[in-house]
Amino acid sequence: MSAHSLLIAPFETLAFMRGALVAVIALALANGAVGTLLTLRRMSLDADVLGHAVMPGAAVGFLYAGPSPTWLSLGGLLSGLAVAALAGIGADTRARQESGLVAFYLVALSLGVLLVAWRGSNVDIMRVLFGTVLAIDQRALWQIAAAASIILLAVAVLYRPLAVSSFDPAFLRMVGARAPYGAIFAALVVLALVANFQSFGTLLAVGPMLLPAAAARCWGLGVAASMALAIGFGMLAGVAGLLVSYHANVPSGPAIVLAAGLLFGTSLIGARALRHAATLLGGSI
Amino acid sequence: MALEAVSGVFEPGSLTAIVGPNGAGKSTLLAAIAGVVRLARGRIERPPTERLAYLPQQAALARDYPLTVLELVTLGGWREYGPFRAPPAFMRARAVEAATTIGLTERLGRRIGQLSVGELQRALFARLILQDAAVILLDEPLAAVDAQTTTVLLDQIARWHQEGRTVIAVLHDLDLVRQRFPTTVALARRCLAWGATEAALPALAA
After folding, report:
1. DSSP string of B153-188?
2. What's the pTM?
3. Which of A160, A176, A221 lies at the smallest CB-CB distance from B66?
4. Would you list the domain boundaries of chain A?
5. Is A153 an interface residue toward B (CB < 8 Å)?
6. Each residue's pLDDT tens digit in chain B (206 positions)?
7. Is A171 part of the contact surface with chain B (CB cutoff 8 Å)?
8. CATH topology assigned to domain A3-284
9. H or E stretch including B137?
């Protein structure tokens, strides 16, 4: 099998593969930016909870309009934002109640599955749980592109206060920057999760956000470089996952998340080996 | 943390130590003055336009954040350039100057995670210099720092005092308080004494 038929032909010949390619690239841009800030703010668990919080709203959207991307997204966005507000995710002075958050996401997940099962089929349930990146239509692509653009723009404008509120929120308040940056960021996370929901489902939506960012963070770069690397990793995992899913005939969402997981593992080991080698070299010079 | 029956005045330009046993409410009092905790009862009056700087204990800072010392110190000028602009060159120059004052010049390019406790505290003091505040609140600024750093930090506190700024610090070392702080507030859930250090310190022992 030539490199062309392995790497290029699937996208050349199949429109749904091209659609999926555009989707994973647009998502990687948003995910790299949001995911890097998530890891820096130590909000991985919060993101997981919000990923599940999207579920009941999306299910209600499904009941109302069937598997329409617009209604799924709208419902998911509303329930995600409601939960972020209720749970105080993003509030700078929150007492963490991890068991409460975990209890909540189990309830949200079960409720969502029951709602979808009430009117839908097993295929529909699989869809909301794991997504269908290969079934992304034109309208869903526009929504993803819009969400990614809003997220990138917001992170670009709010980059400095978001960064400072990640490591020293008290200082930010002290110098008079009193906008609720934590809450704004939580809203961006929900938006990113909803954008990922179509492609990866409620169970995996956090994966393409966290894994490339966590992989990039291993290399000890500054924030901006780390974001760029996370975006690159996300795109790489997206393309690799799509190709594996195509050639091996396996579900695309899990394949992409697994590829991102592989990058994370490689980065963990690679970065450590590199540091070790640097110490050895430094010692001998 | 409960704290009651505390009432007094920090004179403008005064240099005050807050002392007392663990759990006495020292940090609470400082945070209340800073406005970061809400009071259940009582009130704190200060000129609304006055600039205030507050340095909490180190645990409040996420040290694994990939930030250089220069970037951290430059943040002190935040009010001058706001949240949406990169710090201007003159602010960076001021940051270098402050770092020199506090003996941190060689660490400017380091990540904050690579600093020792004492070095990080010096960096935070350098940031305070840039904040140019009329009132400076320090919560246990000398905790876990070495003797040399302690001297540097105390000298900086004295410099702020000479510049006419009001400095209020939570401290444990009573000998240092005696040597360096003219005024003392002694706390143990309530105010034991508030006034000249020599007169206030014996209230703690009693």
Report:
1. HHHHHHHHHHTT-EEEEE---HHHHHHH-SEEEEES
2. 0.87
3. A221
4. 3-284
5. no
6. 567 777 788 888 999 999 988 888 888 888 888 887 888 778 888 877 788 899 988 666 888 889 999 999 999 999 888 888 889 999 999 999 999 999 999 899 999 999 998 999 999 999 999 999 999 999 999 988 899 999 999 999 999 999 999 999 999 999 999 999 999 999 888 888 888 898 888 887 76
7. yes
8. ABC transporter involved in vitamin B12 uptake, BtuC (1.10.3470)
9. strand B135-139
